[in-house]
Design brief:
The chain has 104 residues and is an alpha+beta fold. It contains one helix and five strands, in the order αβββββ. Strand 2 and strand 3 form a beta hairpin. The longest helix has 27 residues. The model has no long low-confidence stretch (mean pLDDT 86).
């Protein structure tokens, strides 16, 4: 029974790693696009948990951008999350579902 549990764990880990690699390869095939945009909203997908080493959070954070065309897109953002405020306008650079840069 313990062997089956260990094998199951390793299979699950291998599948998770494979899916993450596949997702990253698919993202890299997407074009890098830029557009004038406005920050429409900001949110995180779960309650933020701060690390005692200085406030690091691994909670995914998202920003909803309204493009010049009127279309809205939701993108994952990294360290830009705290620097971006709702209502700000600038040039958005993104690839797939990832925000690469937002310049005011």
């Amino acid at each position: 029974m313990d062997t089956l549990l260990v094998v199951g764990f390793f299979v699950l880990a291998a599948v998770s790693i494979f899916l993450e690699i596949w997702k990253q390869l698919k993202l890299q095939q997407q074009p890098v696009l830029s557009s004038p945009a406005r920050v429409a909203a900001k949110y995180s997908s779960a309650r933020e948990l701060e690390d005692t080493r200085g406030g690091y959070s691994s909670t995914p954070r998202y920003v909803v951008f309204e493009l010049e065309s009127g279309r809205t897109i939701t993108l994952k953002v990294g360290s830009l999350y705290d620097a971006i405020a709702e209502g700000e306008k600038g040039i958005l650079t993104y690839q797939g579902d990832q925000c690469l840069n937002f310049q005011w």
